[in-house]
C-alpha cells in the first residue's frame, strides 16, 4: 500500500498523475484518501493537479465511439444550491437541435438528485442506457455515459465521496474525463474565482472549443441571477469574459426560482419544461443551451442560440427525443 502525504504539498502535473493513479488503483486506504481529498479541497487544487488527476482517470476509463463533433455539457456539482437539473435538460435540447451529445454523469454525490437519478425517474432504464450508449448516440444523437460503467476505478471512490458529502477534486476530474473523448464542452464549476485555474487545466489537456463557466453566486452553470465568469478555451489557450442572461435576450431571475428537490421533483419539472412550460427553469436551460451550441460550432450568437433551443422545446423535438431514447434503451 502507498502512503499519501500527511501534509498535501502542491504537485506537478506528473506527480498528480502518479498519486491519483495510486488512489484509483486502490493502493491507499479509504481513510487516507478521504483525508487527502479534504486537505486538497481546503487549500484549493492547482491547475497542474487537476490536469494530472484527470490524466490518471482518463488512462483508466473504458472508451466509447462518438460521432464527429459530439459535445458534453455538465457541471462539477458541489455548489450547494440544489437546483433543478439544468445540464440534463440542456443535453436533450442540444441533441434535438442536431448536435450529438455524449452526456457524462452519475448519481448524486453531494446533491439531492444527479443526472442519472432524474433521468431514471423520467423512465430511462439507466443500466440499459449504459449498454446501448454507442447505439443511441449513433442513431438518436444522445447517450448517457454512466460514470460507473466507464470509470471502474471510481467504484472504490464513490463511497468515500458520499461519506464526505462535499465537493472534492473528483468533481473537477469528471468533466475532463468524458469516455467519448469529446473535444467540445460546456463545463460549469462552483467557484467563480476558480474559472481561470480550471481553464488552465483544460487548456493543458487540449480542446477544440470549451466554455468554463460559473455564476457569481457559485452556481456550477450559467446563472440567470446575475453575472457569470466565462473562460473561452480553444486549443491550449483561453480568454476570460463576462456573460449574463441579457446577452441571450433572457430575463434575470433569482437562484431560488430554479431550486430543485429529489429525483421525482426534478423529473416532474423537466417533464413540464419539455411540455412547454415557461419560466426561469426554461430560461436557464436556454442560456446554457446557447453556450453549448456556440462551442459545438452550430451558431455564433447567444440570442440565435437561445432561439434555436427554444424552437427545439416548442416544436416538441426535445420531448420526442426523450421518448425515443427511453424506448430504445430497454
UniProtKB/TrEMBL annotation:
GO terms for biological process: L-tryptophan biosynthetic process. Keywords: Amino-acid biosynthesis, Aromatic amino acid biosynthesis, Glycosyltransferase, Magnesium, Metal-binding, Transferase, Tryptophan biosynthesis. Anthranilate 1 binds at residues 75, 106. Gene3D superfamilies: Nucleoside phosphorylase/phosphoribosyltransferase catalytic domain, Transferase, Pyrimidine Nucleoside Phosphorylase, Chain C. It is an enzyme of class 2 (transferase). Its cofactor is Mg(2+). Mg(2+) 1 binds at residues 87, 221. It comes from the Bacteria. Residues 11-60 form the Glycosyl transferase family 3 N-terminal domain. Pathway: Amino-acid biosynthesis; L-tryptophan biosynthesis; L-tryptophan from chorismate: step 2/5. Mg(2+) 2 binds at residues 220-221. Residues 70-318 form the Glycosyl transferase family domain. In the C-terminal section; belongs to the anthranilate phosphoribosyltransferase family. Belongs to the anthranilate phosphoribosyltransferase family. Homodimer. This is Anthranilate phosphoribosyltransferase. The gene is trpD.
